[in-house]
Amino acid sequence: MMDTERILGYLLLSLGLGIIFYSIFSALPVFSGTKDPPQIFKLEKSAKNISIGGVEIPGLEVVPVDYLNISGNIGAFIIFLWFLVAAGGRIAQIGVSMLNVRKT
Question: What string of DSSP letters covers the chain?
Answer without folding.
Answer: -HHHHHHHHHHHHHHHHHHHHHHHHHHHHHHHTSSPPP---------PPEEETTEEE----SS-HHHHHHHHHHHHHHHHHHHHHHHHHHHHHHHHHHHS----
